[in-house]
Amino acid sequence: MEVSGKIYGVIFSAAISLVMSLFMSFFMIAINVGFTNEFVTAWLMSTLIGFIIGLPVAAIAVPLIQKGLNRYITIKQS
Which of 35, 43, 46, 78 is most open to solvent, judged by the fewest CB atoms within 10 Å of its CB? Predict the structure, then answer.
């Protein structure tokens, strides 16, 4: 599949946000609440909230971080 750089950035940000939300919420709920009967519900709700917050943050932060890093760091071609 071929997409523009802008679309790739949105897909990448969404994927990173989802994966980070899943793992972070899982471990935070497990540590703070434990594995109770409501664990799965709390985990899914926390994941949803984390994704809703994380997606716009990632959409703004990822390009800014890439731009900043590209100013000072170059990728070595092997």
Answer: 78
Q: Which domain holds residue 46?
A: 5-72
pLDDT in tens, the chain (78 residues): 888 888 887 888 889 889 999 999 999 999 999 999 999 999 999 999 999 998 888 888 888 888 899 899 888 887
Please work out, in degrees rounded to the nearest 5, the angle formed at the alpha carbon of residue 33 by the alpha carbons of 29 and 39.
65
Q: Quote the CA–CA distance of 43 and 32 in Å, as a whole number.
A: 11
Helix (H) or strand (E) holding 69: helix 39-72
Number of structural domains (the chain) is 1
